[in-house]
Amino acid sequence: MGISLEPFVTAAADTPGYLAGRPLEEWNAAYARVENYFHALQVRNKLLLGHLVSGIVERAMQRAVREPDRPAMALAGEEMDRVVGEWYAAVLDEPVEAADLILATRGRLALLLSDMPGKWQDQFLRPGPWPEEFVRSMRENFFRAGPDFQISQMTPRPMDLGAMTALANLGNLPYFRFVLLWLGVAFLFVLVFHLTH
């Protein structure tokens, strides 16, 4: 993934402090967002982390030239989601669907259960073929990460309110019972206050 910034630098050559039509601060924020996401996935190798983040930001810069109204952080976030989602789909042999949050969530969990940070960091976002042990571990953990669905029935049951029900059934009038109950509670508070002061 060779990174050449020439088209982005020439696109904003007349404006100092800009890259691909956006202020450098925007690109720094986009870089930090992608880097934080990869930190959350526990990519610890600094060289690999820098390479991956730069690749995502480069893709966002290519889109920025074509989509001048979109913020750099949004473009970088979308590219990050797309690249990571496509990689999960390729490794797990699952179809890629637009905004497939289940694939992304279960893919992240499978990545962590497979001990990617410890054993397979160099395989993250790398194009295939991958080591067979890595693929097997990812696929096993992907299926294990999903919920086990069970058919269940919920039948309504009467609510048991405990002692409140017994206290409320003291009188015939509902308001009388309510007032009597709260007078009893107030009396207890006054009694406790009187005994403690």
Strand content: under 5%
Residue share in helix: 55-70%
Mean pLDDT: 78
Low-confidence stretches: 1-5, 7-14
- SSE string, helices as H and strands as E: HEEHHHHHHHH
Global structural class: mainly alpha
Placed side by side, the strands forming the largest sheet appear as: 1-2
Number of domains: 2
In summary, what is this structure?
63% of the residues lie in helices and 2% in strands.
Polypeptide structure, described:
- The structure is a single chain.
- This protein is mainly alpha-helical and 197 residues long.
- It contains 9 helices and 2 strands.
- It folds into 2 domains: 140 residues, no CATH class; 31 residues.
- The chain has a two-stranded antiparallel sheet with strand order 1-2.
- The radius of gyration is 30 Å and the shape is elongated.
- The N terminus is likely disordered.
Write the layout of secondary structure elements.
Elements: H1 6-11, E1 18-19, E2 22-23, H2 24-40, H3 46-66, H4 72-92, H5 101-113, H6 116-119, H7 132-145, H8 163-168, H9 174-196
Antiparallel strand pairs: 1-2
